[in-house]
């Protein structure tokens, strides 16, 4: 079946994929019907009704609202336009062409002016012929001295390769196979003041992009200056972090899950702590965020900076920085700010009051806008933002997005690590690529000392409904009882002021799969003056369009769906002739109406809002009995490719209610793990104002609560989720803040500060580690040591013809785990003293049938159970790999080939391309009309190269240089596609002729100077002509 990706509201579709799915389902009408423009998918106006609600048959929705959206044909990324909507865009390069970051070992005040390293630039020009232009000063922090620069196209280094004939290519380019980027990197690194040089990476913030364009969980604008409704299930008004209400009961579910409520009961709110947020900016005009910006009284956002402006897009325009981080187009940073420090709204504050606050409402915020409305940034901007946050006096730095990597050594991660070393915790979302399996954490969450945070699912499912009313009874007004209910507007939306009785499409009060899936009976009444009540079909042979067609055949115009369960509650789309309004209510509301209609014989009349543009928002906290409390399936998995443990911790990160842009409703339910930055602030206040990143990570990891393994469908009671998914588990803020026992691990391959042991892989196995238990309390502590095993999982799919990374959930190897022994099974730690324990690990044996080639990852927890039954059990997580990462090929012949979409191309195919122009914008990527190599990386690689080889008349090959975007450092495990458009990375124009593409990848733990540590594969030859 064609791969169509659907988020909660917006459907991404393609004509050919619509045809394919229509054929496969034997539903030609899905291909043939056309109903005009689909407001959920403006690109789909000629594509029929396939895209209207195909998710019931072919698409799994995780509820996470995260990840990269792609079309079915071509894997074209979807990007935000200036108006905030999504549009298909050409696949952007991973690096800004010709842009580099340089780190210098000092700053020469006599030569460097305004952060511009003039002597370094002159040296490149005079000694190497490389003319450059200054981009950004990155020397604002004492932790990183440097700049970014742009290589100009008139450099000697680029001009030398400008000829187009094959002889000139051989003479000018043969000596340097990696070509321009390698030459520039080598020249820059050779300068005496240079510590390191990196290409400027483009970072696309997928989470921000997607979430800002889904309004299924938004308050309907405008919410301010309208009637307030805060309908919750059992919630009480919570404290606002102000001195007069610091100990009020906190029942907000994410706070209860993490014990924030217990610290709040002690009056701990994060007072005196500044939390820096590096994100999309913030709508500081929001009343719950103080409504002001600056150091004035009542301002929650007291400082910040905008590094980008609204319309910045790397490679297309320049940033427009200013001193105000205000955001009114993305909203992700506003959601983060509310999770951390939202204030409650009192009567008269002019806004909705949903009875929740941020986890640390006493803290102040400094917000640094690192990407604008196009949800794209660069590593130079992110480094500048982190540096400024540090120098502005941040006590904690939080960034709830990252770049899929698996590597720890890129420039951004290095800066984050140095900030932690300087005493400021850096908290980063682990990422949203959990569906792709192991070894895919984000950077800079992979940075050494940085706290990577996994996401668990909220135990409640908050929903922001639009409020309407219904009445029960007949024509006698004395029998009428009006009640409020909440609904999600579907498509087409209900018109204003519709007031009609409900008519049930089914005759059962139990949820059914087939309401109106078949033509309605002959005795069905005229439905034109009724609202048809029906269930969402879970039958793969029934679509909303079928239901709509059958309802309309009896005159029906309006459809009121009820969800089958809370987690499938969503907007519904029905594109059938005659249907004028569609809405959705929660399962309990549908059941209530069915009972009234079918069991009690009552008449139920629904009154929809008079003005859909000025409606009341109704918050309902529905139960999540399926995935609540377990790890979210979208959260990225570790470890890094060097076997460093990540994530370290987890926190609620799915289905989180928080503040949002005022122009989009002011509140939204989204996903985000920013609460952990708040917990650092709470711990600092609770422990006397001291902020020690390593100590706090040890305390939080040891006191966290590991969660039951949930495979997206089933919770396996008695089995804990693996360490690479959850780290220590869900943080327990109160236990960490009041802990008197501190676990510290010494030795090799240990994640510093997080108290997680890595046994590494079989080649680098370190089987013995020593950890200390420090007792800071006034009484002796006695612990019994134990071992809890987590499932061992294969990285690759068993039985596949080649090594293929498994998607979530990875295959479990039943009954196979590591064995641990301890130098002592019971230890006594004297008050004020410490005790050492040595743990010896024996990895799972291949004698049990374990296949080491598939890189099984094992993990578990050392438990320290106190003799005091009231004390918290401490845990020390561990992980390791059976097998050799270095022996695992990064490239496999069957997975690297010249491609036409996803199919291999025969040798000697001829392509006719537009004549390349180095000064013009390159043509859009075309997976069929342009030569392109598809390389599916088996594992990550520190360096991936795609070079062009010209084939001479005698059949010999000459390597000319790299394609644009290559070489690519620190590449994650995923699919890469490189296009031949007649230009090299340095803008050299290639002549017509015969070529191959050469793909090279350095293996994990490989030495770049040793040829045997590289996997090198080439494509079949192809011919190029120009128009």
TrEMBL record:
PANTHER family: PEPTIDASE S8, SERIN ENDOPEPTIDASE. The active site is at residues 279, 332, 674. Residues 757-879 form the C5a peptidase/Subtilisin-like protease SBT2-like Fn3-like domain. Residues 270-704 form the Peptidase S8/S53 domain. Residues 158-180, 216-251, 909-930 are annotated as: Disordered. Keywords: Hydrolase, Protease, Serine protease, Signal. Belongs to the peptidase S8 family. This is Subtilisin. One of its GO terms (molecular function) is serine-type endopeptidase activity. GO terms for biological process: proteolysis. One of its GO terms (cellular component) is membrane. Gene3D superfamilies: Peptidase S8/S53 domain, Subtilisin-like superfamily. The lineage of its organism: Eukaryota, Fungi, Dikarya, Ascomycota, Pezizomycotina. It holds the Pfam family Peptidase_S8. InterPro entries: C5a/SBT2-like_Fn3 (IPR010435), Peptidase_S8/S53_dom (IPR000209), Peptidase_S8/S53_dom_sf (IPR036852), Peptidase_S8_Asp-AS (IPR023827), Peptidase_S8_His-AS (IPR022398), Peptidase_S8_subtilisin-like (IPR050131), Peptidase_S8_subtilisin-rel (IPR015500), Peptidases_S8_5 (IPR034187). The keyword Acetylation does not apply.
